[in-house]
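Continuing the series of single-chain predictions for the mutant panel. This is the parent chain; the variants come on the following pages.
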Amino acid sequence: MSRVLFIDDEIPIRETLSMYFNLKGIEVTSAATGTEARQLAEANIYDLVILDIHLGEEDGLALLDFFRQKDPKLPVIMFSSSGDDPEVIQQALAKGATACMSTTDSLDNLLKEVQRAIH
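Parent structure:
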């Protein structure tokens, strides 16, 4: 079973994605803050990270740097709202994000990207 760390500050999004991926046979651990995500990443091994670009008061791009330093081969999919600045998305890709997905993308499309990145 694949293990995914999903980091988003919005409870409904975390709960929906966790439930969806669990039904698809992917184990999801979720974090609401960068601090919580760092602690989980230090204590566990994940196959993939899904990271909100706008993580409340924190900068998702800075957290992306943490994951790139911790494990440069770990796939990180950035999760953004549909109104995100394309320049921010380009920055994420330049910093090593595997892909950027929008909150408006279907869950099936996100699942395909997760499966592609893991395998």
